[in-house]
C-alpha cells in the first residue's frame, strides 16, 4: 500500500475512495449510502451498481486514461464517479450547464478515452465525443449483489494513479485543470471532514458535483460510511428543503453561503433540532449568515466555516456555536493545520503584519503539482520556497487578514478591496449591510469604472414573492445603509434583479450581471450655484463630466488646483474662500451647498475621515500648513481609522495671526477637543509640524486628555530645549531666508555684516513674493510664520511616548551624520521612544509610494491599547 507498484486495496485499511465504499458494503451493507427523492441505495446496493458499471468502462477506457462525465447532478453521478475509479481510469467532470466555449476549452487540454452520460444528455454527449465511446448510466435498482458482475474488480491501483482531473469554473478566464491521484485523496482524508463526520451521520450536500467544492463533502461522507442525501436545488423551495432536513433527520448540512441565505432567509417555523453540524464554504460567510444560523437552529448545532481551494484543498476550518462572538462583517475561517502555513502578503508578496489586509498565500508541500499542462501559470501561482524546496507558496488570489487570535478572515477576491475617494474600501461589509434590509434576499457589490472614476454598484434581489419595483427603492436602501456606513461606502448605483445569475457551481455569475444604467440625474446640476461651478471645475480639472457626488480630488484635484478654484471663484463671482473650504467640501454638491449657505465660518480642522472605531489621529502638516498632506495616509490606513488634519489659518490673510507656537498649538487643541470627545487620540507631525504636535501633546496632557502617542515624521530638532540651548538646524532651503544667525565671535563688524546679509535676503524674498501667485504667497507666508514661531519655542520634557519615523534619504542627516535629531527628541521624553526607518526623501514621508510604510507603523501605534 506504500509503494508505487503495490496495490492500495485492503480489506482492513482501504485508502482509495472505492476501497472504502467496498469496506462499508462488506461491514454495514444495509446502511444508507445515497438517498434522493427518487432513489435510495444501501452501501451494498451502491457498491454493486458501481461494480457493474465499472465492468462496462474497463473495455473502452484503458487504465490511467481519462473518462469524461457529462451528467446532471444526482445519484448516477456519484455511482459513475466511484465506478470510474474502480475501473482504473480518471474522471474528468464536465458540467452540462457550461457554455460550448467552456466545454471546448476543457477538451482542448485533455485527451478523452470515453464518455459517460445519462439519457437526458445523450445527444449532446454524442456530439461532444466525436466518435469516442459514449456509455449511458441509468438508475440501478441494485440487482443481485451476489451476481458475478456485482463483485469487486481485481487489479492493483497505485497511489500515483490519476483519480480525477477537475477544472476550475473559468469565471476569470480559461478553466484550469488540477489533477488528483488516489494517493492525494488518501492523504486528504486525514485532514478533511472525516475527522468530524460520523458513520451514523445523514449528510445533505448542495453544490455542483462537477466541482471540487461540491464533491468534497460527499467524498468525506463516503469515506466515513455516512448517508449522502441529494436534492436538486432547481426543483426545490426553501420550505421543502427545510422540511426534508427535519423529516429525514439530517445531521450534517453542507452548502454555499449564498444558498444558505436563500433557504434560511425565512426561518423555519421553529428552530431545527436534529442538525449537529453545518458546513459553509467557498465564499465568505457574513455576520448576517451567522445570525441566520443562530435563528434557524437550536443551541448545540455547530457552524463549520472552512477555507479551501481547488488547487490546494482544505486549508483551514473554524467551528462556532451559538455563544461564539463574531466581530466584524465576516466569520473567521480558522487556522491551518499540520505543516501548512498562511501568509498575508502585499503586492510584492512580502509578508504583512498581523491585522493588515493582503493576498492569502499558502505554504504547502510540493506534492501539489500545479495546473494541468500549464507550466507558465503553475510557476506564477506555485512559487518554490527558496528556503525549503519541498514546499511551495501558492497565491490564492483571495484577500484576507489575520486576527489577533491567529484566525484567518476571508474577505473575497482581490478585487473586493478597492479605493473610493481615496479610501481603501472592503465590499463585503457593504453587502453585509444590504442583506440586513428586511426585504432583501440577495445582494452583490461590485466596483465599476465610470469615465475613469471607480464607483460602487450594488446588485440586489428582493425576497421571494415580492415584486422588485414594490419591494425595494434605491432611496430607501441608501437611507438604510447610511445608518451604519460612511458616505463613501454607499453604492453610487443600485441594480434591482428578480434573482442573481448563478454559475453551475452555485456561485454568482459576475459576467452575467447587467451593466448599471447611466444615472442621468446625477450628472446634471440641480441648483444655479452648481450650474455656475460645473464648467469652472471641468476647466480646472480637465475632465469632460463631473457628477454631483464625485470627489474632486479623485478627479485629479490637488493643492494647486484647489488654489486655482479659489482664485477663479474670487475673480468671476467675488466669492472669498480658502482652499480649506475645498478640502472640507470636495464635491460639486457640497461645495455649492456651502456657498449657498452664505459662507459660514470655516475651521482650520479638516475632517479627512471622520468615520471609524480606532483612536483619532490628529495630523499637523509641515511648514506650508497644508492639511491635504495627510490625504494619502488616510487612503492607506483605511476607513476604520478616523483622521483629522489642520490647515494653517493664515492661508487666509484675514484670519488671526499666531506669533508663537504655543498659541497656534492652543488654537488647534481647542478645535480638536470637541471632535475627540472621550475617544483616545494620537498626534502626528510632519517635518517642522512635529514641533507643533509636540506642544499640542503637552497641552492635551495638561487638559486631562493625554494622547496615546506622538508620531514625529522625520521632524528635525529646530527648537530650543528647556536650558536655552540650540537644537538642530532648518529642514529645507526656504528656511534659510528666515534663519536666526548664530552669535558671531567677530564683534561689531561681524554683527553688522550679518545684519546687512539678513536685510539683503529679506529684500530678495519680498521681490520674489511680489512676483508670486496668490497661492505661492500664501504658502510662503505660512511657512515663514511657522518657522519663526518654532525657532522661538522652548521645548519642555514630556511624559508621553514618542514614535520617530526616520527618513532614509534625509539630506540634512546625510550631510551632518554627527547630529541626530532623534537623540535630542529622545532626551525630552519620559514615556518611551521608538525609531522606525521609512524609505524615501525627507519631504515624502506622506507621499506615494513611501506613505505605505509610514501607514504601516502608524497603524501599529493606533492599534495599541491606551
Distance from first to last alpha carbon: 59 Å
- Total of helices: 26
Total beta strand runs: 34
Radius of gyration: 34 Å
- The shape is elongated
Strand composition percent: 15-25%
Largest sheet features: 9 strands, mixed
Mean pLDDT: 80
Share in helix: 25-40%
Q: Order of strands side by side in the largest beta sheet?
A: 2-1-10-9-11-12-13-14-15
**Uncertain segments:** 1-13, 722-745
The computed structural class is alpha/beta
Task: Explain what the structure shows.
This protein is an alpha/beta fold and 866 residues long. It is built from 26 helices and 34 strands. A 9-stranded mixed β-sheet has the order 2-1-10-9-11-12-13-14-15. The radius of gyration is 34 Å and the shape is elongated. It starts with 16 loop residues before the first helix and ends with a helix.
Offer a few descriptive terms.
alpha/beta, single chain, 34 strands, disordered N terminus, 866 residues, 32% helix
Helix and strand layout, with pairings?
Blueprint: H1 17-27, E1 32-35, E2 40-42, H2 43-57, E3 66-70, H3 75-86, E4 90-93, H4 100-107, E5 114-117, H5 122-129, E6 134-136, E7 162-167, E8 177-181, H6 182-188, E9 202-205, H7 212-224, E10 227-229, H8 238-247, E11 252-255, H9 257-264, E12 277-280, H10 287-296, E13 302-309, E14 313-320, E15 335-336, E16 341-345, E17 358-365, H11 375-381, E18 382-384, E19 391-402, E20 408-413, E21 417-420, E22 423-426, H12 428-435, E23 440-450, E24 453-462, H13 468-471, H14 474-482, E25 493-496, H15 528-541, H16 559-573, H17 579-584, H18 588-596, E26 605-609, E27 616-620, H19 631-637, E28 643-646, H20 661-676, E29 681-686, H21 689-702, E30 710-713, E31 720-721, H22 747-771, H23 774-792, E32 794-795, E33 802-809, H24 811-815, H25 821-828, E34 833-841, H26 851-862
Parallel strand pairs: 1-10, 3-4, 3-5, 5-6, 9-10, 9-11, 11-12, 12-13, 24-25, 27-28, 27-29, 29-30, 30-33, 31-32, 33-34
Antiparallel strand pairs: 1-2, 7-8, 13-14, 14-15, 16-17, 17-19, 18-19, 19-20, 21-22, 23-24, 26-28
Helix pairs in contact: 1-2, 1-3, 2-3, 9-10, 15-16, 15-18, 19-26, 20-21
Amino acid at each position: 500500500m506504500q509503494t508505487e507498484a503495490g496495490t492500495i486495496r485492503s480489506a482492513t485499511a482501504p485508502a482509495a475512495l472505492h476501497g472504502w465504499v467496498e469496506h462499508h458494503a462488506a461491514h454495514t451493507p444495509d446502511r444508507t449510502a445515497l438517498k434522493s427523492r427518487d432513489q435510495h441505495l444501501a452501501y451494498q446496493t451502491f457498491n454493486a451498481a458501481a461494480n457493474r458499471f465499472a465492468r462496462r468502462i474497463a473495455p473502452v477506457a484503458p487504465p490511467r486514461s481519462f473518462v469524461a462525465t457529462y451528467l446532471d447532478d444526482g445519484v448516477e453521478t456519484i455511482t459513475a464517479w466511484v465506478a470510474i475509479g474502480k475501473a482504473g481510469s480518471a474522471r474528468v467532470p464536465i458540467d452540462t450547464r457550461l457554455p460550448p466555449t467552456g466545454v471546448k476549452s476543457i477538451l482542448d487540454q485533455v485527451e478523452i478515452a470515453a464518455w459517460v452520460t445519462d439519457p437526458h444528455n445523450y445527444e449532446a454527449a454524442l456530439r461532444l465525443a466525436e466518435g469516442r465511446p459514449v456509455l449511458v448510466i441509468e438508475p440501478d435498482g441494485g440487482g443481485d449483489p451476489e451476481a458475478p458482475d456485482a463483485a469487486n474488480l481485481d487489479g492493483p491501483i497505485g497511489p500515483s494513479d490519476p483519480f480525477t482531473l477537475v477544472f476550475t469554473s473559468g469565471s476569470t478566464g480559461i478553466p484550469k485543470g488540477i489533477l488528483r491521484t488516489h494517493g492525494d485523496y488518501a492523504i486528504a482524508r486525514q485532514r478533511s471532514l472525516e475527522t468530524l463526520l460520523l458513520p451514523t451521520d445523514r449528510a445533505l450536500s448542495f453544490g455542483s458535483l462537477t466541482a471540487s467544492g461540491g464533491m468534497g463533502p460527499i467524498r468525506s461522507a463516503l469515506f466515513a460510511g455516512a448517508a449522502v442525501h441529494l436534492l436538486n436545488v432547481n426543483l426545490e423551495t426553501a420550505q421543502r428543503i427545510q422540511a426534508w432536513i427535519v423529516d429525514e433527520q439530517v445531521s450534517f448540512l453542507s452548502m454555499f453561503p449564498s444558498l444558505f441565505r436563500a433557504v434560511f432567509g425565512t426561518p423555519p417555523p421553529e428552530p431545527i433540532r436534529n442538525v449537529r453540524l453545518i458546513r459553509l464554504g467557498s465564499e465568505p460567510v457574513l455576520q448576517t449568515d451567522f445570525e441566520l444560523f443562530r435563528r434557524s437552529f437550536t443551541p448545540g448545532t455547530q457552524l463549520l466555516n472552512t477555507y479551501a481551494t481547488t488547487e490546494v484543498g482544505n486549508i483551514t476550518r473554524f467551528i462556532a456555536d451559538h455563544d461564539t462572538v463574531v466581530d466584524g462583517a465576516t466569520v473567521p475561517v480558522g487556522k491551518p493545520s499540520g505543516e501548512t502555513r498562511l501568509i498575508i502578503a502585499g503586492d510584492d508578496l512580502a509578508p504583512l503584519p498581523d491585522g493588515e489586509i493582503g493576498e492569502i498565500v499558502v505554504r504547502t508541500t510540493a506534492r501539489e503539482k500545479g495546473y494541468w499542462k500549464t507550466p507558465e501559470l503553475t510557476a506564477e501561482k506555485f512559487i518554490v520556497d527558496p528556503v525549503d524546496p519541498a514546499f511551495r507558496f501558492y497565491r490564492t488570489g483571495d484577500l484576507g487578514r489575520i486576527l489577533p487570535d491567529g484566525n484567518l478572515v476571508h474577505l473575497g477576491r482581490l478585487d473586493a478591496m478597492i479605493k473610493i475617494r481615496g479610501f481603501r474600501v472592503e465590499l463585503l461589509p457593504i453587502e453585509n449591510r444590504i442583506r440586513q434590509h428586511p426585504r432583501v434576499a440577495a445582494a452583490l457589490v461590485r466596483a465599476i469604472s465610470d469615465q475613469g472614476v471607480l464607483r460602487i454598484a450594488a446588485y440586489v434581489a428582493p425576497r421571494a414573492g415580492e415584486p422588485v419595483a414594490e419591494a425595494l427603492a434605491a432611496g430607501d436602501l441608501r437611507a438604510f445603509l447610511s445608518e451604519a456606513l460612511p458616505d463613501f461606502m454607499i453604492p453610487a448605483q443600485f441594480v434591482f434583479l428578480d434573482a442573481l445569475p448563478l454559475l453551475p457551481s452555485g456561485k454568482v455569475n459576475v459576467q452575467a450581471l447587467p451593466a448599471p444604467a447611466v444615472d442621468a440625474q446625477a450628472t446634471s446640476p440641480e441648483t444655479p450655484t452648481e450650474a455656475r461651478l460645473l464648467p469652472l471645475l471641468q476647466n480646472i480639472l480637465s475632465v469632460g463630466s463631473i457628477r454631483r457626488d464625485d470627489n474632486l480630488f479623485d478627479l485629479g484635484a490637488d493643492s494647486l488646483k484647489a488654489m486655482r478654484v479659489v482664485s477663479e471663484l474670487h475673480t468671476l463671482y467675488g466669492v472669498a474662500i480658502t482652499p480649506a473650504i475645498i478640502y472640507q467640501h470636495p464635491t460639486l454638491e457640497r461645495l455649492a451647498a456651502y456657498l449657498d449657505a452664505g459662507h459660514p465660518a470655516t475651521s482650520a480642522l479638516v475632517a479627512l475621515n471622520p468615520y471609524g472605531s480606532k483612536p483619532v489621529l490628529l495630523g499637523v502638516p509641515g511648514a506650508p500648513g497644508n492639511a491635504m498632506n495627510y490625504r494619502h495616509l488616510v487612503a492607506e490606513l483605511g476607513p476604520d481609522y478616523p483622521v483629522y488634519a489642520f490647515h494653517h489659518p493664515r492661508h487666509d490673510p484675514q484670519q488671526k495671526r499666531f506669533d508663537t507656537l504655543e498659541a497656534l498649538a492652543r488654537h488647534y487643541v481647542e478645535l480638536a477637543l470637541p471632535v475627540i470627545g472621550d475617544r483616545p487620540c494620537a498626534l502626528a507631525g510632519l517635518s517642522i509640524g512635529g514641533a507643533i504636535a509636540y506642544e499640542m501633546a503637552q497641552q492635551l496632557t495638561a487638559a486631562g486628555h493625554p494622547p496615546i502617542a506622538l508620531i514625529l515624521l522625520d521632524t528635525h530638532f529646530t527648537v530650543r530645549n528647556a536650558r536655552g540651548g540650540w537644537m538642530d538646524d532648518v529642514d529645507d532651503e526656504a528656511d534659510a531666508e528666515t534663519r536666526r544667525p548664530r552669535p558671531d565671535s567677530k564683534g561689531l563688524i561681524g554683527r553688522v555684516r550679518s545684519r546687512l546679509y539678513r536685510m539683503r535676503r529679506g529684500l530678495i524674498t519680498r521681490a520674489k513674493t511680489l512676483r508670486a501667485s496668490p497661492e505661492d504667497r500664501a504658502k510662503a507666508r505660512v511657512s515663514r510664520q511657522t518657522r519663526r514661531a518654532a525657532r522661538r519655542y522652548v521645548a519642555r520634557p514630556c511624559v508621553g511616548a514618542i514614535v520617530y519615523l526616520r527618513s532614509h534619504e534625509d539630506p540634512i542627516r546625510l550631510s551632518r551624520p554627527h547630529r541626530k535629531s532623534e537623540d535630542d527628541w529622545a532626551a525630552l521624553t519620559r514615556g518611551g521612544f521608538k525609531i522606525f526607518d521609512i524609505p524615501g526623501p525627507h519631504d515624502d514621508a506622506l507621499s506615494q509610494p513611501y506613505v505605505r510604510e509610514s501607514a504601516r507603523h502608524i497603524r501599529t501605534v493606533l492599534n495599541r491599547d491606551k
